[in-house]
Amino acid sequence: MVASGKLRASIRAMAARLRRRLRSAARRWADEEALQRGWTRVVCILPCCVTLASCREGPLDPQGPVGQAERVILYDATTIMLAVVIPVILLTLGFAWWFRSGNRRATYRPNWEYAGRIELIIWAIPALVILFLGGIAWIGSHELDPPKPLDSRVPPLEVEVVSLDWRWLFIYPSERIATVNYLVVPTGVPVHFRLTSTSVMNSFFIPQLGSQIYTMAGMTTQLNLQADKPGSYAGFSAQFSGPGFSDMQFTLRAESGEGFTTWVAKTREHDGVLDGASFAELARPTRAGGELTYGSVPDDPFDIVAHGHLATRWSAKEAL
Q1: What is the side-by-side strand order in the sheet with 168-172?
Q2: Contact 168, 180 (CB under 8 A)
Q3: Backbone angles phi, psi at 296, to 5 degrees
Q4: What pairs with residue 232 in β-bridges?
Q5: DSSP assignment of 230-247, as one string?
Q6: Which is higher by pLDDT, 108 or 220?
Q7: Is residue 294 a contact partner of residue 162, using CB atoms and an 8 Å limit?
Q8: pLDDT of residue 319
């Protein structure tokens, strides 16, 4: 009797320990499953967040008519290409699954060579894609031609751009003022840029406003842009041009009409003067510094630079 009682007690104790271990294992399994689900969600959501984050302050977040038109072209081209890419991916997966080694219903035809309908489809689809993409590029390249003036009842603001090594000089010929590494424009007003370079080729680009265009020594290029909303928009050089290229950035600040007028008045009160000596110092190669403001431009140096009359040869010590 005593022995049987001890045996039953021992069995109950072992059963209790087993239940505790099972519950503990179930909790760990549930925690691991929850953790796995959490990581799965993170892995799925993270690429979407990274993709959406890249849309800010770039071509997919336009703040002007040119940028908006370019985004439409980009979306149209992407849609046309996805209309081919997605079916190809699905068909590839479908064929791989259907013709797997374990599928006895799949017919293997080693001597099959030609089918006119399939060949027609295979060649017609890429031909249509090229036709659509070529049409979009043809129409867009003419509608968004950089020198083409923007449709507006307001006369454009004239801004002259000189790419230096490695800074950006902006000259307002009508206002007789100039800035370095930043410019201010009024919202809702077209801006007509005339661009040149003191030496090597650069690329002027403001992603949120639209087209990029090259600046080259001894010649002038033109670009028309417009900012619809007040704000600060990043600009940079998209063309490698030497050791200071990575710091060759600037900021476009879009102000209301009154804000722009006030800024011009305050800038004219500034002591800086862009004369021959100060421009020669600016043209000397140097790493990008801070923003500079010139309240007076007695002699506009843009034409001198654009016609290649500026000496741009320096010794190795002078260029540092």
Answers
A1: 221-225, 191-197, 157-163, 168-172, 177-180, 292-294
A2: yes
A3: -150, 140
A4: 253
A5: -EEEEEEE-S--STTGGG
A6: 220
A7: no
A8: 46
Beta-carbon contacts of 197 under 8 Å, excluding residues fewer than 6 positions away, are 162, 163, 215, 216, 217, 305
For residue 27, is pLDDT > 80? Answer: no
List the domain boundaries for the chain. Answer: 1-54, 65-99+114-143, 157-306
Which amino acid, one-letter code, is at 311? A
**pLDDT grade, residue 234 (50/70/90)?**
very high
Please name the residue that has the structure tokens 């843009």: 302
Q: Say if residues 203 and 245 touch (Cβ distance below 8 Å).
A: no
Tokens standing for 278?
A: 């100060």
Find where tokens 């840029």 sit: 193
Across 136-219, where does the E strand assignment appear?
157-163, 168-172, 177-180, 182-186, 191-197, 202-205, 213-215
Please report where in the chains the tokens 């010649």 appear, as a residue.
Answer: 219
* Omega before residue 166 within 30° of 0, cis: yes
Q: Span 80-105, mean pLDDT?
A: 88
The predicted pLDDT at position 311 comes to 62
Dihedral-angle region of residue 152 (phi above 0 means left; psi in -120 to 50 means alpha; beta otherwise)? beta
Q: Considering the domain 157-306 in this protein, what is its CATH number?
A: 2.60.40.420
